[in-house]
Amino acid sequence: MTASLERRKEVLALAREHDFLILEDDPYFYLYYGKAPRYPSYFSLELEEPETGRVLRFDSLSKILSAGIRIGFATGPTQLLQAINQHANGDLKSPDLNAHTKKVSDFYRSRRDVFQQAMEKHLSGLAAWTIPEAGMFFWFKLLLDDDPSVEGDSHAVISVKAVERGVLALPGTVFLPNGRKTGYVRASFSLLDDAAIDESLNRLGKVVQDARAS
């Protein structure tokens, strides 16, 4: 999810009040393709405050250069960065980084649009979702009951029935700290071509229809 500006400021206030560090792990920052202005990072917001030094920010190149390139960069208080540098060395200076990340985010927006069209085609009335504005995943809720207020359980549907039809996604329960039942699912749109996206969601739609019928 994307935290609102108000929520970010509240978290920063708590960090000052209780004197804890914020580790801002933000690998999808450069994959933003929404139309509204992007919210500033915790690191940027803290620079506007009278007290700084509690935000250590991490960015990743694995989402904008190559999935296999496990390299990133950190931004934060000098004393923390000096401690990190004692254990790792590296330097990246690229005047074309912003231009490159713009191309990457444009690519993922096009993948998002294809996935969204397939969702509307095959899952309208069978799922509910919010259109993502960054990253490479759709987070959506399967409507497994005629009553949309009833919370279904996506685990068996996704982990068993969808897999049997050759569709891989993650049931939402794996993202919840208590592992509770949920109807939500996370699916990636980063690798599949247009035809594969359409076929995958066509199959998933049939899985949901079968689950509703039973």
UniProtKB/TrEMBL annotation:
It comes from Asterophora parasitica. Belongs to the class-I pyridoxal-phosphate-dependent aminotransferase family. GO terms for biological process: alpha-amino acid metabolic process. Keywords: Aminotransferase, Pyridoxal phosphate, Transferase. Its cofactor is pyridoxal 5'-phosphate. InterPro entries: Aminotransferase_I/II_large (IPR004839), Class-I_PLP-dep_aminotransf (IPR050859), PyrdxlP-dep_Trfase (IPR015424), PyrdxlP-dep_Trfase_major (IPR015421), PyrdxlP-dep_Trfase_small (IPR015422). Residues 3-204 form the Aminotransferase class I/classII large domain. The keyword Ion transport does not apply. Pfam families: Aminotran_1_2 (PF00155). This is Aminotransferase class I/classII large domain-containing protein. GO terms for molecular function: pyridoxal phosphate binding; transaminase activity. It comes from the Eukaryota. SUPFAM superfamilies: PLP-dependent transferases.
